[in-house]
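Write out the 3D structure for:
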Amino acid sequence: MWFFSKMCTSKARLDGKTVVITGSSGGLGKETARDLYARDNLIDKKYKHKYKRCLHLGARVLLACRDMEKTREAVDDIKNNPPSWMTKDEYKNNVGELVIYLVDLRSLKSVRDCAKNLLKNETAIHILINNAGVLAYPYEKTEDGNQTTLQVNHLGHFLLTLLLLPKMKLSSPNCRIVNVSSLAYIFADIDFDDINLERTYSPLMSYAQSKLANILFTKALARRLKEADIHGINVYSVHPGIIPTEISRYGSSTVFPGATFCFWLFSLLFCKNVVQGAQTIIYCSVDEETANDTGLYYSNCSVAATYRKANDPEYPENLWNVSCRLLHLEPEENFTTFLETVSHQIRV
């Protein structure tokens, strides 16, 4: 509910940091980009003279999206409209950067191309926010043979994260990966023998399954980083709340006529707006209190308990193995060797 919504109060700056946000041409991704871009101005005026030499640094916020025209419009909007907590006069001297990268998570080739461009063009990557997603999508397979919701919401981000991890390892410490999940995960189970739901497809269940996958991926990755003795990269999964964004646009054609309007009206009246919804994503991306946490699930700017299949100890490993199989990878025990194998996909 909107009246219980907490705001991220961290004043952390992102000087010299590079942030990648998928699906940032609108909704939660754009509001997150707006906040992180604005953090170049978070210095108390009475201390500003002490920071003169670092004011030129700024954050480099990379918007990784599939619709270039819409993303360019988002960049203009972010540059011209500050977050609600900042005045336009404070905002106008922003020295950060907003950069656009093309990625279509429906295509694993596009994911690999995007990763290749990021690794080539960026000297460091400090924060990766896997935000892009679809809800109530009709049954459809991608060019890679995976059900679209599974690939967009989980598998594409799984691959992108693995490809960017070596760069993040070199960029550490205090690097973060934020996977945007949803409370919808509590309704899901995963049939690992039919993860594409070819036998029992449901638009809403496919979404819930993908959101459960986000939590399981977070747990599995955190464990592997720890066991490989890779420090300085923390992983978080996030429930932003129920938000009236474009993610529900397919509901009227796949759930029932008028479902999109009903969802929008309900969330508008009783749930969070997009600014409130972005707060937990921002919190996990910048807040000092989360700097030493990893593998946890967050809601309303605090750690939250997980339930049902998210607590099954076998599920993170089963998902990892199935995800690797869908990407034609062997899930090796040595994580460092495994990352080298994944990286080879974009070197050939």
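The longest helix spans residues 203-227.
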